[in-house]
Specification:
Layout: E1 6-11, H1 16-27, E2 32-39, E3 47-50, E4 53-59, E5 70-73, H2 77-89, E6 93-96, E7 127-129, H3 135-148, E8 151-160, H4 167-181, H5 213-226, E9 231-238, E10 245-253, H6 259-267, E11 272-274, H7 286-289, E12 295-303, E13 309-316, H8 324-334
Length: 341
C-alpha cells in the first residue's frame, strides 16, 4: 500500500459503523494525513480520538470535502445521495456503506475478497458502494464454491444482530432485557415489536410481493457481485443478538460439489475461516465472530434432498465485515490506483 498520506473525511463518524471504521483506520495504520470527522446533526461538537489526538466532529456541509482524497460515508442513504456528488465534485472518491448507490449500474459494488477488480470502475462516477453487511459474508463464502462448481440457486435465511439497525437498537435491546427480567412491560420504539427474547421476521418494510426490502437487497446485491442471474431467495430475521450476523445457506450447484470438497476450498479461501467440527461443539457463532474480520463458515453437509445440494452456516461481525473493515480494505486497494497526492 502507498505510504503517502491521504486526507480522509468520515461522514457519520459517531455512528456504530463510523466508530468501527475509525478503529480500523488506526489498527491497520492507514496513512492518514488530514482526518475530518463529520455529522449532519447529532454528534456535532463531540470530540473523538485518533492516533492519540483529539478530533472534533464538525457539521457536514457542501464545502466539507475541499482537499479530501477519500470520503467514507457511514451515514444513511439520504445523506449519501445528497453529499456523495458534492464530495466527488470536490475531488474525493467516495466509499459508501449505505444502500444509496449499490444498484446504480455506474457504481461498482465491491466485496474485496470477491470482486476487487471492480474497484477501477470508481472512475465512472467517483463512488464505490459497499454491499450490505448480510451480503458481504455470504458472497465471500460462496465465491470459491461458485468458481469450482457454478451455483444455480441459493436459499439463504439471515439472523441479524440489532447493531445492524444502529445504536438506538442496541440500547433498546439492553433496556428491554432489563425491564423484562424485572417483570416490567416494554414499549417498542425502534422495532415494531419487542426484540428482547424474540425474533422478528421483518427487516425493512414489506413490498407488494410479501418480501421485505432487506430480502430484495440480498437477492439483487448477490447477483450483481457474483455477476450471475442465479436464483436467490431470502428470508431476513432480526434476532436479540447485539453483534454478529448469522446465515443459514443452502446452495444447488450445476456440477457436483461435495461437502468434503467445499471444506478444502474454504480452508484456503481469502477472508474465510473454516470452523467446522460439530462433534466437538465447534461451529461459527456470533460471540466468536465479534471483533474480527474473517467470515466464519461451518456446519457443511451434503443436502440429499436435491441434486448437487450443500448446506452451510455463515457468521460474521456485521460492523466490520460489510462495515468498517470492508470499507478500509477497499480504500487500501483504491490508493494503489489513485494519483499520488
Amino acid at each position: 500500500m502507498s505510504k503517502k498520506l491521504w486526507n480522509i473525511a468520515l461522514v457519520g463518524a459517531t455512528g456504530v459503523v463510523g466508530e468501527q471504521l475509525l478503529e480500523c483506520l488506526e489498527e491497520r495504520e492507514f496513512p492518514v494525513g488530514i482526518l475530518r470527522c463529520l455529522e449532519r446533526d447529532k454528534g456535532v461538537g463531540k470530540i473523538l480520538e485518533f492516533g492519540g489526538k483529539p478530533v472534533p466532529v464538525t457539521a457536514l456541509a457542501p464545502d466539507s470535502f475541499q482537499g479530501i482524497h477519500i470520503a467514507f460515508f457511514c451515514a444513511g442513504s439520504s445523506v449519501s445521495r445528497e453529499f456523495c456528488p458534492l464530495a466527488v465534485a470536490a475531488g474525493a472518491v467516495c466509499i459508501d456503506s449505505s444502500s444509496a448507490w449499490r444498484m446504480d449500474p455506474e457504481v461498482p459494488l465491491v466485496a474485496p475478497q470477491v470482486n476487487p477488480q471492480r474497484i477501477v470502475d470508481y472512475r465512472k462516477k467517483g463512488i464505490i458502494a459497499i454491499p450490505a453487511s448480510s451480503v458481504t459474508p455470504l458472497v465471500t463464502a460462496l465465491k470459491p464454491l461458485h468458481d469450482a462448481a457454478p451455483i444455480k440457486r441459493i436459499v439463504v435465511s439471515t439472523y441479524q444482530a440489532v447493531s445492524g439497525t444502529g445504536r438506538n437498537a442496541i440500547k433498546e435491546l439492553q433496556s428491554q432485557v432489563g425491564e423484562l427480567l424485572n417483570g416490567r412491560p416494554v414499549t417498542p420504539k425502534v422495532y415494531p415489536h419487542q426484540i428482547a427474547f424474540n425474533c422478528l421476521p421483518q427487516i425493512d418494510s414489506f413490498e407488494p410481493d410479501g418480501s421485505t426490502g432487506e430480502e430484495r437487497m440480498l437477492v439483487d446485491e448477490t447477483r450483481k457481485i457474483m455477476e450471475s442471474e442465479m436464483g436467490v431467495t431470502a428470508t431476513a430475521v432480526r434476532v436479540p443478538v447485539f453483534y454478529g450476523h448469522c446465515e443459514s445457506v443452502n446452495i444447488e450447484t450445476v456440477s457436483p460439489l461435495s461437502a468434503a470438497s467445499a471444506r478444502e476450498l474454504l480452508a484456503v479461501a481469502p477472508g474465510v475461516e473454516l470452523v467446522d467440527d460439530p462433534s466437538q461443539g465447534i461451529y461459527p457463532m456470533a460471540v466468536v465472530a465479534t471483533g474480527q474480520d474473517l467470515v466464519l463458515v461451518g456446519r457443511l453437509r451434503d443436502d440429499g434432498s436435491v441434486e448437487n445440494g450443500l448446506n452451510l452456516w455463515i457468521v460474521a461481525d456485521n460492523l466490520r465485515n460489510g462495515g468498517g473493515a470492508t470499507a478500509l480494505l477497499i480504500a487500501e486497494l483504491l490508493v494503489e490506483l489513485l494519483p499520488i497526492p
